[in-house]
Design a protein that fits this description.
Blueprint: H1 5-22, H2 26-32, H3 47-57, E1 63-72, E2 75-83, E3 90-96, E4 106-113
Helix pairs in contact: 1-2
Length: 115
């Protein structure tokens, strides 16, 4: 049985997150994160470069753990946990559309401490 588009998209998004946040393979991340990536957090530089620069500035102990992931068509939503960066563990929602790596639109909301 062929893998669904949604399953492929979820796998691609998880690979992009693992590559950037945990492996810190910046060259590979540039291939996985769209040059048209839109960053909506005011405290992070705009675009893909802003996101990559943020990760470069964080301690190597940073860890991302995916939690819930849902997909419909080209839209993938991930709720995951960031830890190991000198602050209490935080949950962060990420919405990534067009998970094929083209024209990514990403928004971050719901940042809050883990209880």
């Amino acid at each position: 049985m062929a893998e669904s588009m949604e399953a492929r998209n979820k796998a691609l998004v998880l690979k992009a997150f693992e590559t950037l946040f945990n492996k810190r393979d910046y060259a590979a991340a540039e291939r996985l994160w769209s040059p048209n990536y839109i960053q909506h957090s005011a405290h992070i530089e705009p675009g893909r470069e802003g996101l990559i620069n943020l990760i470069k500035s964080l301690p190597p102990t940073l860890k991302y753990e995916p939690g819930t992931i849902m997909a419909e068509g080209d839209f993938v939503i991930v709720h995951g946990r960031f830890s190991g960066f000198g602050a209490p563990a935080m949950y962060k929602n990420r919405i990534v559309s067009d998970s094929r790596g083209r024209d990514d639109f990403s928004a971050s909301t719901g940042l809050g401490p883990v209880h």
